[in-house]
Amino acid sequence: MEDAPVRSSGRPKDPAKHEAILAAARELFLDRGFAQANMQEVANRAGVSKLTLYSHFGDKMALFAAAVRHHYEHNLPEALFRDWDENDLRGAMFEFGCAYHEYLILPATIAGRRMLMRTADTPPELSLEVWNNGPARINAFVAATLTRFVGLGMLEIVNPQYATVHLLSLLRGDLFAQLGYGVQRHVPGEDTKAYLASAVDLFLRAYACAPAPRVPE
Predict the structure, then answer these.
(1) Were both Cys, which of 50, 88, 143, 204 would link to 160 (CB 3.0–4.6 Å)?
(2) How far is it, in rounded angstroms, from Cα 209 to Cα 154?
(3) pTM metric for this prediction
(4) What mean pLDDT value characterizes the chain?
């Protein structure tokens, strides 16, 4: 049973210890899940006392939420949020797809997905913390970007939220599902690029504006 949270004395926190705790907590939560992760072991891995651990984070739920934010701050590639080139929509979408795919196959990303899939004891508010700090941010960026291209007259989309789901689902493909279940270990490079290009082309066939008809001379 976990000890009761220890109230902070109000003294300034040591940044190095704070970072060490977050790194240790992230590893332990990914390895054990929320319910099985033990605060004493987090303290041991971080090389701090349990008193120090609780002075930085009031309880295990606060530590989990902070570890989630720490994970996304260190693992979400900046390339995912780069503005798409208005002069090369297909190329920009392909570059985004490559960055998105590279993020999806990171060991930490796959471990986090497996953790949430196998632990029914993770409190819903913590699952929401994971969603809001990662997938929801990507979804919001893509939806806003697609809306911008609708305004430029390059895409014809009635519901940007639906189109976002369509695009990201196409880019994830079956390989991500296989990695999540531990079926596929090898990630082929050229095959992956060919698949991502085909996913972008399929999306554009569905949503790209048809070129204006030629005016007879």
Answers:
(1) 143
(2) 6
(3) 0.79
(4) 84
